[in-house]
Specification:
This protein is an alpha/beta fold. It contains 16 helices and eleven strands. Strand 9, helix 10 and strand 10 form a beta-alpha-beta unit. The chain is globular.
């Protein structure tokens, strides 16, 4: 009997030895994601490496990704023909340096000398692909993979055909890709449920009605693509197979020191402007609130307006200088719900002010804290449109301590919303790519087993309800 009792106790100890480290790890993850704590003396970023362990195990278990070796017409040929990627801009300079673009020449001396590039948002397809080449858990055995990455530069493809081309031309390469995928056994293993791809364009560029000769192509409306997960800079919140990931910023750190140094810099900056806005009026868009915001800003001694109709707002230095010297930065909808400026704002340590939940809260659910009041301000665009609120009065209600805490939370978000330089290995820093990989693997696990991504939908609608009440 004594031997049985000792055996039972030994079994219990073994089970606890397995679960206790996991519970500790889970607690750490929750602490970092829900309770960011940033101070000048203790800036930190996310680590992807744990402590040493005497237990030998496969660190890539349940994290393997298989990458298709696509025919060159789906990616590298597009880069070779970079002069034709955009009707108004020569994209060749922007696809250089693994998609980061040319090194930034900071004429205003507001940015560090290294790690900064003139990055075009439409090159996210290329940046992500090059970051994937550095992923530590790649496999050439698709049967071991949790997810399958399709390195089709769909954003670059549709961008070259949006204006002046008929439907058949706009749809051609996407239809070609679908047929290629369906010829592969990897596709039929899960009917594409474990496949994902990335795009630097908004989702509406791929969702033309199949019968309608309207905007964009019909790639994401095809029956065969309904199981594929799209990671793009903007998603449709009620569509199940889309998740938004950050726009690329101008900052692509090559080492941990560059991130920590930048966090310290933006934390200590003097911010003389209560709020600011960089943009232009939208006289032809009757629903846009930009005119109202510009009018309020122009009349306020607390606001700085950078008029993009009069100055070159594509100058990273000029825009970043404005954001760095502002406590709050207005982020109304752009040509679509989201704006790249949202991520430039976070990168600058400026507290974003949103006017529609689909501009952030319903979009970047893997990246932004659930409680939006910790890092941002929400003002109903309907109240702005009807002249019922004063932006200045709302922002003046926040105490210095509240502003300081919100700014620290914003600065703590920086590592996870930037894309590291794909030419360097930074295993101790978790960036936007790493967060996307974690999210897509978890999502694919659910979808492959017929379980809808409930957590995502709950977060989307919970944020929507909170934001509009």
């Amino acid at each position: 009997m004594e031997n049985v009792t000792q055996g039972f106790i030994a079994t219990i100890k073994f089970i606890l030895s397995l679960f206790l480290p996991l519970s500790c790890l889970f607690g750490i993850i929750l602490f970092h994601s829900e309770s960011p704590n940033l101070s000048f003396q203790n800036l930190s970023f996310f680590s992807s490496k744990g402590g040493s362990s005497s237990i030998q195990h496969d660190s890539c278990s349940d994290r393997y990704i298989y990458v298709y070796d696509l025919p060159s017409r789906f990616n590298s040929d597009l880069l070779r023909d970079c002069h034709s990627l955009n009707s108004w801009t020569d994209m060749c300079r922007f696809v250089a340096n693994s998609g980061l673009g040319p090194i930034l020449n900071d004429s205003l001396n507001v940015l560090p000398k290294s790690g900064w590039y003139v990055t075009n948002q439409f090159t996210l397809d290329v940046i992500f692909h090059n970051r994937m080449k550095q992923y530590e858990c790649l496999t050439t055995n698709s049967s071991k993979a949790e997810a399958i990455y399709v390195p089709f530069y769909v954003g670059l493809d549709i961008g070259r055909h949006l204006w002046g081309f008929n439907m058949s031309v706009r749809d051609s390469l996407s239809l070609d890709l679908v047929q290629w995928l369906k010829s592969r056994h990897e596709w039929w293993s899960h009917s594409g449920k474990d496949h994902f791809f990335v795009s630097g364009r908004v989702t509406y560029d791929y969702r033309r009605s199949i019968e309608n000769d309207g905007w964009g192509n019909k790639f994401m409306h095809l029956p065969d693509t309904q199981n594929i997960t799209l990671l793009g800079i903007e998603s449709i919140p009620y569509v199940n197979n889309e998740v938004a990931i950050p726009y690329p910023t101008y900052f692509h750190p090559a080492n941990e020191g560059q991130i920590l140094s930048w966090q310290k810099t933006v934390l200590s900056l003097d911010r003389p402007w209560l709020f600011s806005f960089a943009g232009a009026r939208r006289p032809d868009q009757t629903e846009s609130i930009r005119d109202h915001l510009i009018d309020q800003c122009s009349k306020s001694d607390e606001c700085k307006f950078l008029d993009c109709d009069r100055v070159h707002c594509h100058s990273p230095s000029r825009v970043m200088k404005l954001l760095q010297h502002s406590k709050f930065c207005l982020q109304p909808s752009g040509d679509s719900y989201t704006r790249r400026s949202t991520f430039d704002t976070i990168l600058s340590g400026c507290i974003p002010v949103f006017f529609h939940p689909a501009s952030a809260y319903l979009q970047y659910i893997w990246y932004f804290p659930k409680n939006y009041t910790k890092y941002s301000v929400f003002v109903s665009e309907e109240e702005v449109r009807n002249n019922k609120v004063s932006i200045e009065e709302i922002l003046l209600r926040y105490s210095e301590d509240q502003v300081r805490e919100m700014r620290e939370n914003v600065i703590n978000m920086i590592p996870r919303i930037v894309y590291k330089d794909p030419r360097y290995e930074l295993n101790n820093v978790r960036d936007a790519f790493d967060v996307a990989i974690d999210g897509v693997i978890e999502r694919v696990k659910r979808v492959k087993h017929g379980v809808p991504p409930i957590d995502e939908e709950k977060r989307k609608w919970a944020s929507f309800i909170v934001s509009t009440n």
